[in-house]
Amino acid sequence: MSSVQIVSLIVLALLVLWAVSAYNRLVRLRNTIANSFAQIDVQLKRRYDLIPNLVDVARKYAAHERETLEAVTAARNQAKAAADTARGRPAAAGAVTGLAMAEQALSGAMSRLMAVVEAYPELKADQTLRELSEELTSTENKIGFARQVFNDSTLDYNNAAQQFPTNIMAGVFGFREAAMLQATTSDAERAPVRVQL
Fold first, then answer.
1. What is the CATH number of the domain that holds 72?
2. For 111-169, what is each residue's pLDDT tens digit?
3. Are residues 46 and 139 in contact, defined by beta-carbon separation less than 8 angstroms?
4. Count of domains in the chain?
5. Residue % of the chain over a pLDDT of 70
6. C-alpha–C-alpha distance, residues 17 and 9, integer Å
7. Integer Cα distance of 153 and 43 in angstroms
8. What is the rounded end-to-end Cα distance, in angstroms, of the chain?
9. How many CB atoms lie within 10 A of CB 9?
10. Helix 127-162, helix 166-173: angle, nearest 10
């Protein structure tokens, strides 16, 4: 074997090792996104489980606020469906964007519910409602932290998939850009859900 053939084999072996390494890194980063989303999903499920209890307590005191209570329930169901869709494809831009929009609608409905709670002193004083509200506030905080981890994981993945020379492997094997969970553009919509009793 000539020295040119040996050098060619070494270069080819290095290219294959680099390709395998780049591919494995992209897979690991994509799986990190899925894991990060799973952490969000746990908190969202907890949130979705708390909301019907909160609505039931409010319904006892504010039966004539049916529209608001139904809006919260409908928004919760839509957000839960969007989370179910995103759970199957956490790196898919469309699924994550759909979840963000559904969560935005749920936050708006929850804000209206909290305004109803403020209008009823006996509801505001209800111990069960206070406990549920505290749990919901804690869950909202955990969701915020989990979203940050998800966005950090997504950023790492997107950076790896877009930087040269890994972007070549990303293109060849279909590693698409992942979407981040972002807040909306309106300042009113960016405000966190306030639960004050």
1. 1.20.1440.20
2. 999 888 888 888 888 898 889 999 999 999 999 999 999 999 999 999 999 999 999 99
3. yes
4. 1
5. 92
6. 12
7. 18
8. 82
9. 11
10. 110
